[in-house]
Structure formats: C-alpha cells, structure tokens
Amino acid sequence: MSSKKANRYHPSFKFRMVLESFVKGNVAEIARKYEVNANQLSTWRKQFMDKGSLVFQSGKVNREKQLEKKMNQLEHLIGKKEIEINLLKKYLDFYAPQDGN
Q: Are residues 38 and 13 in the same domain?
C-alpha cells in the first residue's frame, strides 16, 4: 500500500487558478493545465465564493483575532504558572525545617 503525500499549494497559486477558472469558465481545462484534480479546483472555487469577501476586511480585524489568540495563550500560561507556584509553596511548607534553620 503506497502512501501519497498530500500536495500543499501556496495560497497565491490557488487564487490564480481560481481566478483563471472563472475567466475561462472551464474548471476541467484549468485543472489539467496545472495538473490539479478538477474536484480540488471546484472546492477552492466554492471556498473563494464563500469566503472571498474576507480578503477585503481590514487588517484590524485579523490583527484583533491574532491578539485575542495570543491573549488566550498567555492567560493559559499564567494559570499553569500559578498552579506551579502553589505546588512549590506546599512543598516548601511541608519539607521546610520547622525551627527556621
């Protein structure tokens, strides 16, 4: 049984193919030209039609999403560090000498 590595196409390549397929009006022809499965090109066309408007959203929206993701990661990290600090405090309280030496 052979395993075929999934092809990864650069977004700009996909975009150019999709645009060309709309201009020419022939998915099969463009797919053959670039040696891509016609079903895959059709999927990219559908994604373009569904989400193409996102291209025109302001960079602010994308930046906000990136910052929100980073904030969530940092909050998670802070939570982990708080747990570690509490565990260390309990360990020191349990094992620290009672006479202060």
A: yes
CB 21 within 8 A of CB 45: yes
Q: pTM for the complete prediction?
A: 0.51
My answer on whether 68 and 99 are in the same domain is yes
What does the pLDDT profile of the chain (101 residues) look like in tens digits?
444 545 688 888 999 999 999 999 999 999 999 999 999 999 999 999 988 877 776 667 778 888 999 999 999 999 999 999 999 999 888 887 666 55
Q: What angle, 0 to 180 degrees and rounded to 10, lies between the N-to-C axes of helices 38-51 and 11-24?
A: 90
Tokens 């309280």 correspond to 93
> What range does the domain containing 71 cover?
57-101
**Is 49 in the same domain as 70?**
no
CA distance 52 to 19: 11
Give the span between the Cα atoms of 44 and 56, in whole angstroms: 18
What's the CA gap between 35 and 8, in Å, rounded? 13
